[in-house]
Amino acid sequence: MTLFPVITGQTGQDPIFEGAADFDLELLESRALDRNILELIYRPTLH
What we know:
With 47 residues, the chain is mostly beta strands. It has one domain. It is built from no helices and three strands. It is elongated and about 35 Å long. It starts with 5 loop residues before the first strand and ends with a strand.
């Protein structure tokens, strides 16, 4: 699986955050909680 995280408020086809700006998400840290769950912590930055 590959993730390309971005918050699409303005340009998404079906925006979840309608009216918000577009954001990129910078990965700050990740850790394995168990064999099936990975925690990803991001910081939003304006696109």
